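Input.
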Amino acid sequence: MKILVIFITKENHINFIPNILTLKNYLSSYNTQYACISSSDDFQIYDGIINLKYKEISSKMQLSKLSDFIISKKDELDYDWFIKIRPDMKLNQPINFNKLLINSINARAREYKGPKSVYFGSSLDTKYNTSNYGTTETIKVLDDQIFIFHKSILNKFQYIANLPDNFYITSNYRLLKYEHEWFHTNYWKICNINLNIIGIYAELLDTYRQIRYKSGNINI
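Output.
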């Protein structure tokens, strides 16, 4: 199995190196290569840690960074799986590839109401509890910090610049042009990509190694 890990960030930082080493160790049994899309030319921080096959500079927000990269490179991206991740994200256990669906974005949930029960299926450790249970699935918004997708959906990615003018307005009730989790989810839907909630035991750290968010459970 061949994997491309795509780090997407506003800036790279020396304090992210332990996270990257942990991810590298978890993926050591696979044929894994790495890409980084940063707002600055700061890729030298990871020299000697990982060999970056792709180094892209983009000042856009993270989903625009990714979609531009996929669309411009898709004819040469000969990989089975792609992992989009922020370098300030630390994995606490390996990704279970047996839980992945090939026609989907596979990720934790940011917001969910429905019957699923998933250990480490939430990007927040306190938000999801039995009050979110429902006999039918009425809310499903995926996390944007880390998600995994198969080569079979590469042709479904659309340029965000080509989205209708009201897309940001209808998908973003907080700040216009901010690509948050709800924006991501609406983008996947427009691209006709399925949303698959999986468990990923991880935590998001700031540049000073302080824990922000740990994975929580859904309806458990």
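Residues 83 and 175 are 27 Å apart (CA to CA).
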